């Protein structure tokens, strides 16, 4: 098992800023509560099949499916869930063994055994959905089962982060009797073994979660049922909360609504729980573009961009400036961009361009997605344009597209500079570096960096003690700073707004900021 330092635990430490009541002081009312707790979110699933999803669908998966290992409230390392025990059995981190809990079953009563686990993992690679989670299994060679309860994962290279991969909802265990081995399940149903069963589901509207009486795992359910309501925007979701049509919200609160709730919560009877988030926003420079490919242009942009202004003007300080691709709170985080560039400076940027013989203003087109990262994204890019144009060194055009066409465009290399956001698959610095480098990466724009891909990452994956590889992560981040192929902008915070009748919000977010619905309950004492 992992032996990580305690630093990342800060990510799971959530501070209640309710003006109405102390957090975590009320007892659970699970025994007497029958009405479902209704939770609103703007993050609707794109699919109900784990083999087809590497996106916000994980929010639902965590609650209706189960993984061998997962993150209990407050944990920073994977803990056995469907498994009774898990750990590497060799000294090179290439053989990982898990033993299932005894008597496991799916929500419909079907047997959950080692064969079902192997089936679930193997079908991810076999189906290989475009944009799906197969990329997470790059180090997996084969899955071996012995009897009903023993599963052994053989890796093709040392990978100390493999338990973190197994903890992602993409590795959810599904019922072989209900899921095709070589195709995505598309009947709108779920057969899992999580704390809840999916009682009913209406795409884009709601998911009704009911108690899974067959569940065995670490989750201590503090309610009998949860209904998740899907909203198109933050304003309508907050309106439903204030009208008491929902009990809580957890994903998609706009900055203006957060600020409004902070100022009016005492009057409205709403509590706001603030958590340290790991969502990041960043720019990607396309090496195929005649201007973005120039190192001096990228460095001049980095020298001009004012992250503090973006955080304050656009997001009303509900996000924090970010100076590294690895967010604050994770082992190995640095402030490389601030260390190298300091405060925004037009004079320094002009010198960078002049030394490279580049005539100004430099024409650049910045692209963003209009419907994936929140309503403030357009304003963020308007502010970026204002900053770059005001320097006199750039002539910027801003364009936006809906996510599906936006994604297709950047994978074809159509955009000179484009914005992306990133929610981590697991809470480790590796997951903020590895997905973005290499010939095939999550950005669709090849980024060759042999020192990172061939030396630093392989070295880090040999160490289960992640504190021992801080040096590798710092060096990797400095390479990213030197290249400026990626420009980090801000790190988000996570907010849960809830009726003052609801408790448990301060324990409900796992280290990847996925909500564990079972932690929520109605207060029974004051």
TrEMBL record:
<dbReference type="InterPro" id="IPR030678">
    <property type="entry name" value="Peptide/Ni-bd"/>
</dbReference>
<feature type="domain" description="Solute-binding protein family 5">
    <location>
        <begin position="78"/>
        <end position="442"/>
    </location>
</feature>
<dbReference type="Pfam" id="PF00496">
    <property type="entry name" value="SBP_bac_5"/>
</dbReference>
<dbReference type="InterPro" id="IPR000914">
    <property type="entry name" value="SBP_5_dom"/>
</dbReference>
<comment type="similarity">
    <text>Belongs to the bacterial solute-binding protein 5 family.</text>
</comment>
<dbReference type="GO" id="GO:0030313">
    <property type="term" value="C:cell envelope"/>
</dbReference>
<keyword id="KW-0732">Signal</keyword>
<dbReference type="GO" id="GO:0015833">
    <property type="term" value="P:peptide transport"/>
</dbReference>
<protein>
    <submittedName>
        <fullName>Peptide-binding protein</fullName>
    </submittedName>
</protein>
<dbReference type="GO" id="GO:0043190">
    <property type="term" value="C:ATP-binding cassette (ABC) transporter complex"/>
</dbReference>
<dbReference type="GO" id="GO:1904680">
    <property type="term" value="F:peptide transmembrane transporter activity"/>
</dbReference>
<dbReference type="InterPro" id="IPR039424">
    <property type="entry name" value="SBP_5"/>
</dbReference>
<keyword id="KW-0813">Transport</keyword>
<dbReference type="GO" id="GO:0042597">
    <property type="term" value="C:periplasmic space"/>
</dbReference>
């Amino acid at each position: 098992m992992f032996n990580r330092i305690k630093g990342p635990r800060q990510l799971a430490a959530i501070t209640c800023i309710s003006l109405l009541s102390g957090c975590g002081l009320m007892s659970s009312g699970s025994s007497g509560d029958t009405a479902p707790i209704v939770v609103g979110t703007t993050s609707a699933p794109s699919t109900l099949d784990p083999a087809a999803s590497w996106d916000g669908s994980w929010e639902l998966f965590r609650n209706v499916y189960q993984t061998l290992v997962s993150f209990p409230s407050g944990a920073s390392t994977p803990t056995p869930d469907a498994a009774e025990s898990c750990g590497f059995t060799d000294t090179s981190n290439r053989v990982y063994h898990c033993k299932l809990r005894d008597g496991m079953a799916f929500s419909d009563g079907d047997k959950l055994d080692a064969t079902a686990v192997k089936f679930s993992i193997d079908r991810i690679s076999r189906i290989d959905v475009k944009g799906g989670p197969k990329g997470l299994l790059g180090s997996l060679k084969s899955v071996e089962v012995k009897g009903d309860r023993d599963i052994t994962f053989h890796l093709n290279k040392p990978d100390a982060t493999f338990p973190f991969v197994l903890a992602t909802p993409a590795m959810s265990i599904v019922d072989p009797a209900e899921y095709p081995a070589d195709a995505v399940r598309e009947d709108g149903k779920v057969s899992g073994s999580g704390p809840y069963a999916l009682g009913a589901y209406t795409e884009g509207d709601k998911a009704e979660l009911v108690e899974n009486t067959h569940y065995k795992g670490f989750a201590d359910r503090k309610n009998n049922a949860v209904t998740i309501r899907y909203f198109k925007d933050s304003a309508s979701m907050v309106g439903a909360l204030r009208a008491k049509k929902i009990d809580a919200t957890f994903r998609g609160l706009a900055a203006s609504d957060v600020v409004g709730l902070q100022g009016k919560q005492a009057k409205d009877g709403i509590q706001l729980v603030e958590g340290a988030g790991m969502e990041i926003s960043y720019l990607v420079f396309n090496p195929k573009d005649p201007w973005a490919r120039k190192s001096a242009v990228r460095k001049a942009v980095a020298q001009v961009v004012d992250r503090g202004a973006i955080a304050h003007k656009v997001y009303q300080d509900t996000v924090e400036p970010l100076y590294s691709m690895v967010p604050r709170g994770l082992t190995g985080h640095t402030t490389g961009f601030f260390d190298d560039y300091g405060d925004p400076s037009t004079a320094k940027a002009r010198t960078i361009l002049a030394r490279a013989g580049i005539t100004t203003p430099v024409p650049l087109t910045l692209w963003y997605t209009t419907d994936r990262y929140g309503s403030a994204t357009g304003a963020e890019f308007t502010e970026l344009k204002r900053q770059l144009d005001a320097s006199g060194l750039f002539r910027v055009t801003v364009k936006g597209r809906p996510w599906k066409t936006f994604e297709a465009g950047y994978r074809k290399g159509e955009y000179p500079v484009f914005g992306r956001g990133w929610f981590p698959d697991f809470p480790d610095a590796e997951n903020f570096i590895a997905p973005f480098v290499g010939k095939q990466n999550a950005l669709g724009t090849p980024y060759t960096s042999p020192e990172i891909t061939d030396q630093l990452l392989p070295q880090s994956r040999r160490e289960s003690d992640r504190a021992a590889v801080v040096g590798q992560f710092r060096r990797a981040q400095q390479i990213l700073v030197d290249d400026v192929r990626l420009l980090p902008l801000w790190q988000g915070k996570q907010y849960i707004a809830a009726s003052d009748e609801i408790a448990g919000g301060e324990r409900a977010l796992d280290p990847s900021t996925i909500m564990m619905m079972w932690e929520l309950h109605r207060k029974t004492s004051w």
